Amino acid sequence: MTTSYTFRSELWLYPGEAGWHFITLPLDVADEIRETTALLRKGFGSVRVTAGVGGHEWQTSLFPDSKSGSYLLPVKKTVRTAARLSTGDEVEVRLTVEGDT
After folding, report:
1. CA neighbor of 33 nearest in space, from 53, 47, 51, 52
2. SS3 28
3. pLDDT tens by residue, 31-72
4. Angstrom distance (rounded) from CA 15 to CA 47
5. Bridge-based pairing state of the strands 90-98 and 70-74
6. Predicted TM-score of the model (pTM)
7. What angle do CA 61, 63, 68 make, to 5 degrees?
């Protein structure tokens, strides 16, 4: 089973020394992913995905965020640099969730 999603959301910087950048998934997308991946989730409720922004793709995991009730998509520096993304940019995201069927 392969499920894909496309949405727009803001790139933001987690406060602290690590400097991780994330995109918070819209709640409707997060709810659907939560429902369709109940048996596929890994440790801490993470979900393996292929993500794409600005013509660049990478494999990563979504992480549940109790504060927003959604999932967080980490966006690594190499992707941000290649796609010329900065904190606060609204980004079009493509996600593919792949299951073990």
Report:
1. 47
2. helix
3. 999 988 876 666 678 999 999 999 999 999 999 999 999 999
4. 23
5. unpaired
6. 0.89
7. 145
